[in-house]
Specification:
alpha+beta; 7-stranded mixed sheet
Length: about 675
């Protein structure tokens, strides 16, 4: 798709003009959408105190970390140079002014509109009314209307279908901010992006022309429908049927039950486009017989399709997004792509969601860190063992305690290092997007292979450590973290699903070690380790002793990573269970090495930092030292797990796990 294929020269050559209108609308409408306090004064001193606490907590809902983001965007990853290197005949030009405009407008939307809605999304949630009606949490619908009207959904999609054609990375940077402000709200437009990408990649021209403009404008939203009551990750068991409709060429009757369908029904748009896995008559058994279909809630005539929501799940968290059970009862649908290639096509959607779920992990770490830091600076308890730090106060703030600082620095290291990991993938996604639009199949294959290797690491590792950071958020608060009013526990409940959906951590680990590395004949890890060694080389002889030491550490771990891979491969040659037994430890080892490699680059960028912000750059170097001294050593335990005997997990028979129950 060429940039010149649709919109006028004025619109495409001056993206800031279009974005400026969006930015101004966001600023003007944010105040009107901001939740207002109830009128009237508290009736008692206790209520006044509670109200003051609630106001203080609310004011800390989310603050966009722009300084941290700019450091990564410009000092570490050089997005300015990256965008200059993109082909302007394929993607709309993007410069620092454009990026800053998007980020600033998103900051306003997140802080003033979305973050204040987060608690209501949790407390009130979505409410099922009837098979075609689910009412979303207060304020969600209005916020989505503002988002769609301002063109944010269209940011990185082709101009041919109404998009703005900007690089995909810009939308990913924006989504990380929204995810931290209000994850469950983001799920509605986020899932739509997966549907859009899937239709662009595999849909017929007729399907694209008919459905993409409304999805890209935000007039409609999208979902993916994979899971059924009898099958989750093992999609070979899918039984939903797709039968050709006589006399209606290209149309199919879809029947079956799908469960765990996030945002499967809601009131934010009038129509919802479902991407549904189903079987054609006489299709082969297993995953080889699955096809993919586009099934809308409403047909183009406005008539309701034959599908509905029979229930929404009562979940631990993510109450703001309805998780639906959908009943397809002869619903009309259209084939996406090639018959019996549905699972392959759906992986376009799945991989979009997996990268989005990695964003969920770092967003939870960021939000938990922000909540924890405020509290640790204000909560006073005891005195520091090395002597009073605040002698004029009744006690020292708990941030002076080393054990509390360890928790805070873990959160900070995960949030900032994880953000860097996502930004790296965002740049690769831009190159892949450009290659796809230009029809460069060789470049697409190269970039897709790189993303395929990194995605399970990001999805699996960042959701695990994001979950840990959220748990630490409760721990910093102590008993107060267990109280809902302080919001720490909501962060944990909302992120707990991240290591489960879009493939559990165990599935991601098998994908990384088994499918990507072993089936790739070790080529992916060999290429990645070579890249790490090349990254370290300039710093191995640095005059900066800390940077030099950390570079040697990453170099050592890159070689050990390869060695451990070869050990697993040798064992798997005689015992295939060695892959499964080692896989989770292998994924976590991979994640910690990757995190450390990114902190090495962040430390190097901080060492080059100018004199205008010495404290900022000093803090970066200090956090990097924490990562290498406290977090990277976790690889020692994971190494032991990788090399542990398979039999230590398999020798206990199923009947011997308990002699009291489950017998």
């Amino acid at each position: 798709l060429s940039r010149s294929s649709s919109a006028s020269n004025d619109e495409t050559r001056s993206p800031p003009r279009r974005l400026m209108r969006s930015a101004l609308r966001v600023s003007q409408r944010a105040h009107r959408l901001r939740p207002q306090s109830a009128p009237g004064a508290p009736a008692s001193v206790a209520e006044a105190a509670r109200g003051a606490l609630a106001a203080a907590v609310s004011s800390r809902a989310y603050h966009a970390p722009l300084r941290e983001m700019n450091f990564l965007l410009y000092d570490v990853h050089n997005f300015e140079g990256h965008y200059k290197g993109l082909n302007e005949e394929v993607l709309t030009p993007c410069d620092r002014e454009t990026v800053d405009m998007v980020v600033d407008a998103t900051k306003t939307m997140c802080e003033d509109v979305l973050a204040p809605l987060n608690e209501g999304g949790d407390r009130v949630g979505s409410v099922w009314k009837d098979p075609n009606t689910v009412v979303t949490a207060p304020g969600f619908k209005d916020a989505y209307k503002m988002y769609a009207e301002n063109g944010w959904q269209a940011l990185s999609f082709p101009e041919q279908y109404g998009g703005q054609g900007l690089p995909m990375s810009l939308a990913l940077v924006q989504s990380e901010m929204i995810a931290a402000a209000n994850w469950t709200w983001l799920m509605f437009p986020g899932l739509s992006k997966g549907a859009i990408n899937t239709i662009i990649a595999h849909g017929s021209e007729d399907l694209k022309d008919e459905w993409l403009p409304s999805l890209i404008s935000g007039e409609m939203t999208g979902t993916m429908c994979l899971t059924e009551p009898q099958c989750g990750s093992d999609l070979g068991q899918v039984t939903t049927k797709a039968v050709p409709i006589d006399g209606a060429e290209g149309e199919y009757s879809i029947s079956g039950t799908k469960i765990f369908i996030s945002c499967g029904e809601h009131d934010m748009t009038d129509n919802i486009v479902h991407c549904v896995l189903a079987r054609l008559p006489d299709a082969p058994a297993g995953t080889a017989g699955i096809s993919l279909f586009l099934v809308p809630k409403r047909l183009k005539t406005g008539e309701l399709n034959n599908l509905g929501t029979s229930r929404i799940e009562d979940k631990m968290g993510c109450h703001g997004s309805p998780t639906c059970q959908l009943e397809f009862e002869g619903a009309k649908g259209w084939l996406i792509g090639t018959p019996n290639r549905g699972l392959n096509h759906m992986f376009t959607f799945i991989n979009t969601s997996r990268l989005g779920t990695a964003v969920q992990g770092i967003a939870a770490a960021e939000l938990a860190f922000q909540n924890s830091l405020w509290y640790a600076k204000e909560r006073r308890s005891m005195r520091s063992l090395s002597g009073s730090k605040e002698p004029d106060q009744v006690a020292d703030a708990i941030i002076h305690q080393p054990s509390v600082r360890t928790m805070l620095l873990t959160q900070k290291a995960v949030a900032e290092g994880g953000r860097s990991m996502v930004y790296e993938c965002a740049k690769i996604a831009d190159l892949m997007q450009q290659a796809e639009y230009a029809g460069d199949d060789a470049a697409v294959k190269q970039h897709d292979g790189r993303l395929a290797f990194l995605t399970p690491i990001l999805k699996g590792f960042l959701t695990e450590v994001g979950k840990e950071a959220a748990d630490l958020g409760i721990q910093v608060y102590g008993g107060h973290g267990y109280i809902k009013d302080n919001k720490a526990e909501q962060v944990f409940r909302d992120v707990r699903i991240a290591s489960l959906w879009e493939g559990t951590t165990q599935i991601q680990a098998l994908d990384l070690l088994g499918r990507k590395i072993m089936l790739g004949k070790l080529k992916p890890i060999n290429e990645h380790a070579a890249g790490l060694r090349a990254q370290c080389t300039p710093y191995l002889t640095s005059s900066d002793s800390q940077l030099r030491s950390h570079a040697w550490s990453v170099l050592y771990h890159s070689m050990e990573w390869q060695y451990l891979t070869y050990r697993v491969a040798m064992r798997a040659a005689s015992d295939k269970e060695a892959i499964s037994s080692s896989s989770v430890d292998y994924l976590m080892y991979s994640g910690y090495v990757t995190l450390a490699a990114h902190w090495l680059e962040m430390e190097a960028a901080a060492s080059r930092g100018g004199p205008e912000e010495p404290d900022f750059y000093k803090a970066k170097r200090q956090t990097s030292e924490f990562v290498f001294e406290r977090l990277l050593p976790r690889t020692r335990a994971h190494k032991a797990g990788i090399l542990a005997s398979v039999q230590s997990a398999l020798d206990v028979s199923p009947d011997a796990f308990s002699f009291d129950h489950a017998r």
